[in-house]
Amino acid sequence: MSDDTSTGQPKADATNGDASDDTRGTPAFFEYWNSMDFVSWMGARIVESADGHAKVYFEPGQHHRGAGIGGRAVTGAVQSYIFDIVTGAAVASLAHGTKPQVTVTLEMAFEHPAYDAPLTFEANVLSGGKQIFFVEADCRDVNGRVCSRCHAIYRRFDRRIEAPSEECTAPPPAPPPKGRGEADAAPLIWLIEATLNR
């Protein structure tokens, strides 16, 4: 996921070791994500997410299609979006959805037009440490044919990082007009000073 949240997410109880409190692989773990707009809006549904593995089912509508010869295939943009969901769910499952993460890279290869629905996206974490995780995934049509593949890198954080305030993200005002004889670096120096003086 590009920017996952853990607010409201069920958490496994790490203190008493009671297996009944462990939500790994249960609908309680990934139903939180299924209820989020970025998943439900696309029409994707996470059906598995545990121990570095995730699976998403997707029944495309006409508005998801338009690619390939004849315009019947699910577009690459739609597939890329769902790859971001499924690879993110695989990484999140390693921390039971309790740590925020961001997508660093998402690289796709489209091998066959995705005509025959439903499509199944599966992802597995290949390796990782405390912060960086490497994931691979594929998309298969209803016949089991691989339509596309994905390689992703994720960065996980120990805690949520607050987004910059709106005034910090607003672009600085335009630099003053360049006067005769000023060095070409003057607008850049002005921009740095304007940013630092906020």
Segments where pLDDT lies below 50 for 5+ residues? 1-19
Helical residue percent band: 10-25%
What is the beta-strand fraction?
25-35%
Class of secondary structure makeup: alpha+beta
- Described by the principal axes of the CA atoms, the overall outline is globular
The side-by-side strand order for the widest beta sheet comes to 1-2-6-7-8-5
How many domains comprise the coordinates?
2
H and E order: HHEEEEHEEEEHH
C-alpha-based Rg, rounded? 22 Å
Under the CATH scheme, which class of the largest domain?
A: Alpha Beta
State the helix count.
5
Largest sheet report:
6 strands, antiparallel
Q: What's the total number of strands? A: 8
How far the N terminus sits from the C terminus, by CA atoms, comes to 32 Å
- Give the name of the CATH architecture of the largest domain: Roll
In CATH, what is the homologous superfamily of the largest domain? Answer: Hotdog Thioesterase
CATH topology type of the largest domain: Thiol Ester Dehydrase, Chain A
**Mean pLDDT, nearest integer?**
78
